[in-house]
Specification:
Blueprint (H helix, E strand, L loop, with lengths): L1 H5 L24 E3 L5 E5 L6 E3 L12 E3 L4 E4 L13 E3 L4 E5 L12 E3 L4 E3 L6
Length: 128
């Protein structure tokens, strides 16, 4: 999976199940799926992720929770985060993210928790 390689998965604190073809993706560390097998929860906080958040995260249309705080993620927040129409919680604090907060964040009508502190982000939080 591109997310694994883009964020230095081989050096994560816990990468159990990732890139093992015998393990279903719903059983990978930090991944929770709904009853239909779609990923709705990514919880990889405090897991030594590095690199940029890949734009492929925007393909996870059922994603409701994205927890990537307390890692060493760099680059900008990808604008495709605006495609995650069911996203309710986005935790990206305590990384090394730069740039402005994408205006697409303002499109997330179900977003109730947004934590972006302790990065090098500029500008204000976009409104919907």
């Amino acid at each position: 999976m591109h997310f694994f390689t883009a964020t230095g998965g081989e050096k994560w604190g816990n990468n159990e199940g990732w890139m093992d073809e015998t393990v279903p993706h719903c059983n990978w560390h930090g991944i929770t799926c709904n009853y239909e097998g779609y990923v709705y929860w990514i919880g990889l906080s405090d897991n030594q992720l590095i690199g940029s958040i890949p734009s492929e995260v925007g393909l996870l249309s059922g994603l409701t929770f994205l927890y990537l705080e307390n890692n060493q993620l760099t680059g900008s927040i990808p604008s495709v985060v605006g495609l995650l129409s069911h996203l309710g919680e986005l935790y990206l604090r305590n990384n090394q993210l730069i740039g402005s907060i994408p205006s697409e964040v303002g499109l997330l009508s179900e977003l109730t928790f947004l934590y972006l502190d302790n990065n090098q982000l500029t500008g204000s939080i976009p409104s919907g």
